[in-house]
Amino acid sequence: MKLESYQTIVNGQLQHDGLSYQYLAETYGTPLYIFDETTFVQRVKDYKEALSNPYFETEVLFASKALLTKAMGQLVAQLGIGQDVVSAGEIYTAVASGVNPSKLYFHGNNKLNDELLYAIEQGVGTIVLDNRSEASRLNKLLLDLGKKQRVLLRLNPGVEAHTHEYIKTAHNDSKFGESVFDPAIEDVIQTINNYPTLDLAGFHCHIGSQVFEEQSFLDSATEMIEFSKKMEDNLNLKVKEINFGGGFGVYYTAEDKPFDIKAFLPKFIQHVHETSQKLSLTLEKVTIEPGRALVNQSGSTLYRVGDLKTTTSGKNYLFVDGGMTDNIRPALYQAKYEALITNKADEVADTVYTIAGKACESGDKIINDYPLPEAETGDLLLVNGTGAYNYTMSSHYNRIPKPAMIHVLNGKSRLTVKRETFADMMRNEI
Ligand SMILES: Cc1ncc(COP(=O)(O)O)c(C=O)c1O
């Protein structure tokens, strides 16, 4: 397993910022989500710095679907960055944690009327409209309230990217946004712009997740800028902001070449500046909304090894005390991870194991065929790169309580999410 900067091996034991995983397991129990605050704060600073430029205002919006807890909201508030939220629940958590609601961007392809009303009532700064029907609903709600709302419209620029490949296409079947190739798109935008209650400040796009190809971001920027200019020329409209979404790829295994943000973002900003300048589009603000790239590296999950078994065909299973209930990604989309037995950190990895969870699903595996030192019941197994889309996608399948979460900062740990009890899971049942 590739070690993170906060991980060191001392006398064969892996440590997190000087804290042994043995100590963390004994203090907080397992499975345990562990989050390194220093790494997160540094990532945010790196993003902010890499975006700074003399041409337009920029803002980093943390896509909180990747990891949202009260402690994360408090960090977002302290760091003064914006936040991408996709439900009333995320708005509630952000605001309750101290995030300034004017810095929230509210996304989602089917925001309920109640959610829109809640967003308006809470003073959410920007609602990112998904489609024409939502715009009409929001206009009606605002008319009744006699209020005005800043909005962006989510567009599909015809660039779709996932991992190392991307395609350019005019055919778009995505459930998100309106296509720039839709013959009715100008009408849609004109209608939104004419609603007296909506202040259409610009456009948004998000081309995919875990993207490694720089060119896909550059191409989508070109498309968005050219389209924005066309709308300004054809409609009575001023595009002040473009939000280019998130999706910057991160390291899970050696197959992934993580995005070098410090090198790429200044290049991206220069490209946005030059392309918009060439077309005489004067942008006031450029935003991006990374989720995974801000938190994934900070997160790891500590498990206790349970039973071990070898099948008749020779496959070695290593069972852990969590699994798909705390990390659904391998079962959901064959996501890959690396792991280490923290109490055997300097031993030779000479046995191949499939690390499986305890849920009643054959697909409940965290890593297939992975080399580790010979394992024993009671060992501690750490999986790195679980900061994003693990806790937020966790479930109660099989009535397995959700793990606790701790944050580590300057060699000290603190509990940020309590381990669930059985009673917690029955709380709402009558
Ligand atoms: C609209 C939008 N913005 C940002 C993100 C964050 O993506 P990532 O975590 O890959 O950076 C997503 C992810 O699904 C998204 O849908």
Automatic annotation (TrEMBL):
Catalytic reactions of this protein: meso-2,6-diaminopimelate + H(+) = L-lysine + CO2
Residues annotated to bind pyridoxal 5'-phosphate: G247, E289, P290, G291, R292, Y389
Enzyme Commission identifier(s): 4.1.1.20
InterPro entries found in the cross-reference section: Ala_racemase/Decarboxylase_C (IPR009006), DAP_deCOOHase_LysA (IPR002986), De-COase2_N (IPR022644), Orn/DAP/Arg_de-COase (IPR000183), PLP-binding_barrel (IPR029066)
Orn/DAP/Arg decarboxylase 2 N-terminal domain location: 40-295
N6-(pyridoxal phosphate)lysine sites (modified residues): K65
Pathway terms, separated by semicolons: Amino-acid biosynthesis; L-lysine biosynthesis via DAP pathway; L-lysine from DL-2,6-diaminopimelate: step 1/1
Binding sites annotated in the UniProt record for substrate: R292, R329, Y333, E361, Y389
Obligatory cofactor(s): pyridoxal 5'-phosphate
Alphabetically ordered keywords of this record: Amino-acid biosynthesis, Decarboxylase, Lyase, Lysine biosynthesis, Pyridoxal phosphate
Enzyme class: lyase
GO molecular-function terms, A-Z: diaminopimelate decarboxylase activity
Subunit structure: Homodimer.
HAMAP family: LysA
Function: Specifically catalyzes the decarboxylation of meso-diaminopimelate (meso-DAP) to L-lysine.
Protein name, entry field: Diaminopimelate decarboxylase
Protein species of origin: Fundicoccus culcitae
